[in-house]
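Below is one such record:
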Amino acid sequence: MNRTIIFVVFCVLTFFSRSIVRSQIVDSIDYSKFKFIRTDLNRIENDSTSLQSFYEKLVQLEHSKSGRINITHIGDSHIQADLLSGTIRQKMQLKFGNAGRGLVFPYRVAKSNEPTSYKSTTNGKWEAKRNVFYEKPLPIGVSGFTIETTDSTAEINIMVKDQPGLGYMFNKFTLFHEKGINNYDLTICDDLNCERGVFKSSDKETSPYISQLKFDSPIRQLILKNKCSDSSCQRTTRIYGMLLENDSSGVLYNMIGVNGSEYRHYNMSKHFIEQLAYLNSDLIIVSMGTNEGFSKGFDKDLFYHQIDSLVTNIKSTNPKSSIILTTPGDSFRRSRKGGVKNPDMKTDKETIIRYCLNNNIAYWDLYEIMGGFGSMGKWYTAKLSARDRVHFSGKGYQIQGTLFYKALMQGYDKYKSKNNIQ
């Protein structure tokens, strides 16, 4: 009874806080300080038919105030830190509703950098692999990362953190993990160390890789513990990702980011496409190309083929998903004389656009919006990029996220106007 009351109060407070914050949404970026940014070019291109179904779902969500829009953002190191995608998530959820934090991975357990909206810890030792190291034996699933342990006492603690205007407590937990006779069962406990459920490794009825648990009240923290199902016990636990949701209508914005990754790395990830389908994405955003543009002997035709392979694979299991490809921004490459402009990045972005135009896919041209060839120097001078002039500062990523959101909403408003939708 007490849990039910707490849940009702949580839902009421979430509704009112969301209503208040929606009325306070402003674009706090003063673009007059950054005249090199081409805000006049900031739009989603080629979206009139390619994003029609997504825009229509947004209309239904906005008018009915019920239902769910699932967005999945796939990328490299620009995405893994979740600064760019986190900005888009925040703005989308403040406008359309917050359906939860979405897909997370315990990056810290894998000894990698982690978003600030949650924290993962462990008491044990885990082997880790990201899709860049495709020659290593662990298979890769939905997150582009995999962790595995043989330690029977190993635990993983996940705690979500609220963001400005958004609460991320959850009451539905989905685990992407390996099942079978060699895998431990998993006990799910809350922050009071109370057992809330058990995932049986032998249970493959719903999915060979997915287990779900619904809580009777929202929680902020959970602990996964290995558990032996019989006297002989098992030998391993392998985790591909975790999905955190609530019962509210709105947007669920999933982030999949892997440092150093390229299109080809996701193509070579054994379980990625199969598990990606479970997210039931209405919109899939792919933001890659930076690492390809730094490879020796960059081959635009090979790159085109790698883009096609990933998009074709995504479409095969996500036929109803709309897709947006984003071009990488301008960047510098290292040389004996220091940082120099990278001309291959322009060829890189032109290849992505050519593919989109040939295949009726929407795209967002960050390269030109940044200011085009050599513009990274201006972003660096304005303290919007990191010292390597490849990555960006926190503010630089926030600006990109804000620009993408504004471009998407501009396309959405244009769609509504064209179809006489108020």
Summary: The chain has two domains: 27-99+249-422, 104-247. Residues 1-26 have pLDDT under 50 and may be disordered. The chain has eleven helices and 18 strands. The first helix runs from residue 2 to 22.
